[in-house]
Amino acid sequence: NKCYRWILILFSFYGSTVHAQNPLVRDQFTADPSAMVVGDRIYVYPSHDIYCEENNGRENWFCMQDYHVFSSDNLTEWTDHGVILSQENVPWGNPSANSMWAPDCIERNGKYYFYFPDHGQESSINGKGFTIGVAVANHPAGPFVPQDQPIEGVKGIDPNVFIDDDGQAYLYWSQEHIYGAKLKDNMLELAGDPVILKELPDQGLKEGPYMVKRNDTYYLTYPHVANKTERLEYAMGSSPLGPFDFKGVIMDESPTGCWTNHHSIIPFKGQHFLFYHHNDYSPGFDKNRSIRADSLFFEANGEIRKVQPTLR
Ligand code: FUB
User: Which residues have CB under 6 Å of ligand 1?
Assistant: First the structure.
């Protein structure tokens, strides 16, 4: 009888735990997943990798022309809500730059603010000249309407937006360094000068910032090229713009050889998840990636336990 009771307890525990099936999206390439919980669903806003032909952009480089959003209530069945924003619809953007890199989305007062990098109309398509714009919707799946101009005072990629418990919003982004700044309540303009978040390892590219708050601690998490390819690292602090103490590695370099990684961390149904990407479906070309998710755990002292990617 005791044994039967234990089996029941274990079964009910296992049955209530949510597991992802990786990669999450299987009919197109996706990268840079930014996940957000709305009600009992997760919405994921990834980049949409395609392959650039020689006559359309920079061959063998990142090539992204639009964004889709996907949602799920169990991490295994995903609904593709279709295209939420295309490069030709960005009033200030270069419609042939193919540079709709990593985005982020957040809800405030019933509106959804979608932050995305793009090249302005005057910019080259060779990696310089990125800035960040905002598109606004009344529903997490859009339709999203882009603002006429990008955010003044921001140059770079990989936007991440965070709203603290006191209502103050912050924008983080990267351009060689990781930057942070307060946002005005309208979520469309900076409210102060950007600061460089400096207390991270000196050497190697750092990008893709993602801020997490848990138990009054701020976790600045980011991909970093410490060796050959990007691994996910984090630093902890007691305020949103630092100072931060470097703590360690969340995920080692990709076992599939993908040069980039890019992530988000959310609580969902009583546990935390790390969303990230590898190039599972394109082992020979790491600019065609696939988004994934795995459970993430905090240690009793608040540090993050390293996540091992579940492989297929
Ligand atoms: O997806 C294009 C770029 O690759 C992102 O902006 C970076 O974070 C890296 O994942």
Answer: 31-32, 47, 62, 101-102, 157-158, 207-208, 260, 262
Catalytic residue among 207, 230, 233, 280: 207
pLDDT at 199: 82
Our answer to whether residue 166 is catalytic in this structure is no
CA atoms within 13 A on the CB side of 156: 21
**Which atom of ligand 1 has the smallest separation from the CA of 208?**
8
Helix (H) / strand (E) containing 124? none
CA of 36 to the centre of ligand 1 (A): 19
Alpha carbon nearest to ligand 1 atom 4, residue: 260
DSSP state of 61: S
Q: What is the mean pLDDT of the chain?
A: 92
ipTM, interface predicted TM-score of the complex: 0.98
> What CA dihedral angle connects 182, 98, 255 and 158, to 10 degrees?
0
Spatial distance between the Cα atoms of 55 and 53, rounded to a whole number of angstroms: 5
296-309: pLDDT as tens digits: 999 999 999 999 99
Specify the pTM.
0.93
Q: Is the pLDDT reported for residue 12 higher than 70? A: no
Q: Is 193 a catalytic residue?
A: no
Q: What backbone phi and psi angles, to 5 degrees, belong to 190?
A: -70, 145
Closest CA to 37 of 245, 265, 192, 241: 265
